[in-house]
Write a structure and sequence with these properties.
DNA-binding; 7 helices; homodimer; mainly alpha; Arc Repressor Mutant, subunit A
DNA sequence: GTAAAATAGTTAGGTAATCAAAATATCTGC
DNA sequence: GCAGATATTTTGATTACCTAACTATTTTAC
C-alpha cells in the first residue's frame, strides 16, 4: 500500500470511528437517553408506518427472533413499541412504534441530517461531488464484492503464510 | 435536506450497516475464524511494532482498563497477544502481538487495502488530491465540532417537540 | 376430521463487550 | 517507612447476541 492509500485508509477509519462515537454520544443527551444505538436500530427496523411481524423485523435487522423478542420486551417496557397478537393468525405477533417511538425515530433522522450537514459543511462543490463518488464506491464495493473479496482474502492469507509472515 | 445531503446520508447509513456485517463475515473464513471484529480492533489498538501498556492501549481503544483486561485474557488464551510485566516498574503490564497476532492483523489490513484500491483506482491525480483534502477536512471537522453539534441536536429536538412531531 | 408437519414466537442457557467500583500490587515523595 | 498515587485485575452489573428447546397455532395429507 502506498502513502496515499495509507493516508486515505487512515482517514476513512478515523471518520468511521468518530461517527460511531458521536452517534452514541448524541443519543445520550436529551429526552431519549434510555435508548441505546442498538435499540434505535431496532426502532428503525420496525419503521414508521406499517406494523411488522417479529420474523419480518428480525430478518430486516439480521438477528434471530429470539434476540428480537428480548429487545422488544425491553422496548415495550420502555414505551417505544406496541406488541399485539394478530387476530387472524394467532401465531403472529405484530409490533409497531408507539407515539413516543415515532418521535424518537424522527429525531434520530434529524440526527443524520445534522451529521451530514456537519460533515460536508467544510467542503466545496467539487469536493462534495468527489466525496459522493467515493462513498458510492465504498457502498458498491461492499454490496458486490462479498464473494470475490472472501476469495481474495483467502488467497492473500495463504500467500502471507507461505512468506512466513 | 437537499438531494445531495439526502444521498450522502443514505450512503453513510448503508455503509455503516454493511461494513460491519462484511467485515465480520470476512473474518469468519480461514485461519482466524476465532477472532471477532472487536478482538481485531483490539489487535489494531496494540499495533504491530511497539509493546504497549494496558492503560495506553485502553486509551487508544476508548475502553476502561477493566474491559481491556478481559479482552486481553482471551487474546492471550487464543495465542494472539503476549502479556508481560515490566521489569522496571512491576505495576505495568506490557502487551504485544504474537507472530500469529501480527499475521492476523496484516491480513485484516488487506480488507482495507482492497477497499481503498476500489475507491482510488478510478481517480486521476488531481482527483486523488482533492479526495485527500476532502477527507482531511471532514476528519478534522468531526473532531472539533462535537460540542457544538450536540447543542444543535438538542435544539432540533426541542423544536421538533414544539412542532408536535 | 384428526394426526403430523410446518410456522411463529418465547424461553433458557451461554458467550462477549462493556462499565463502575472495589481490591491488589507496586512505586514515589517526604 | 508510610501515605498517597498509579497500574492493573477482579467483581458484579447490563446489554446484545446466539443456539436449541419449548409452546402455541395453523396447515396439510391422508
Amino acid at each position: 500500500m502506498n502513502d496515499y492509500d495509507q493516508r486515505v485508509n487512515e482517514l476513512l477509519v478515523h471518520i468511521f470511528d468518530e461517527i460511531m462515537v458521536t452517534e452514541e454520544k448524541a443519543l445520550q443527551v436529551g429526552r431519549f437517553a434510555d435508548l441505546s444505538i442498538s435499540e434505535m436500530h431496532t426502532l428503525e427496523g420496525i419503521g414508521l408506518y406499517e406494523s411488522r411481524t417479529m420474523t419480518e423485523t428480525a430478518d430486516i435487522l439480521s438477528v434471530t427472533t429470539g434476540t428480537l423478542t428480548v429487545a422488544i420486551d425491553r422496548l415495550v417496557r420502555k414505551g417505544y413499541v406496541d406488541r399485539q397478537r394478530d387476530s387472524d393468525d394467532r401465531r403472529i405477533v405484530r409490533i409497531k412504534l408507539t407515539k413516543k417511538g415515532k418521535l424518537a425515530f424522527r429525531l434520530h433522522l434529524k440526527f443524520h441530517t445534522l451529521l451530514v450537514d456537519r460533515i460536508t459543511k467544510p467542503l466545496d462543490e467539487s469536493e462534495k461531488n468527489l466525496l459522493l463518488r467515493a462513498l458510492t464506491s465504498v457502498s458498491l464495493f461492499i454490496e458486490e464484492q462479498d464473494q470475490r473479496y472472501l476469495k481474495n482474502l483467502h488467497k492473500a492469507e495463504l500467500k502471507a503464510e507461505r512468506n512466513g509472515e
